[in-house]
Amino acid sequence: MLVNQDRSEEALPLARWAVALAPWSPNALDTLALALAGTGACEEARQAEHRALEFIQEEGAPELEQLLRQRIAGLEDGTLCVTSPPDT
Length: 88
Prior knowledge:
Strand content: under 5%
Largest sheet: none
Structural class: mainly alpha
Shape: flat
Number of helices: 4
Distance between the termini: 18 Å
Radius of gyration: 12 Å
Order of helices and strands: HHHH
Helix content: 55-70%
């Protein structure tokens, strides 16, 4: 996956497309959040991760809920979000 390879700029349009196709998908929203975080769009990433969390809570998946809560905390404290986009 591109976001896991520090290729967030490339991943971002694909992640946006995935969310456009399946806006109810926590996996698509989580991927979008990670791509946004990797490009420095921290607030938008946090919002996408919160939407993913809402869907996970409806599904009743406690392990995934915990992971998303950790990611939200990382977005809020700045450890998960790139403050300046990586050099290309």
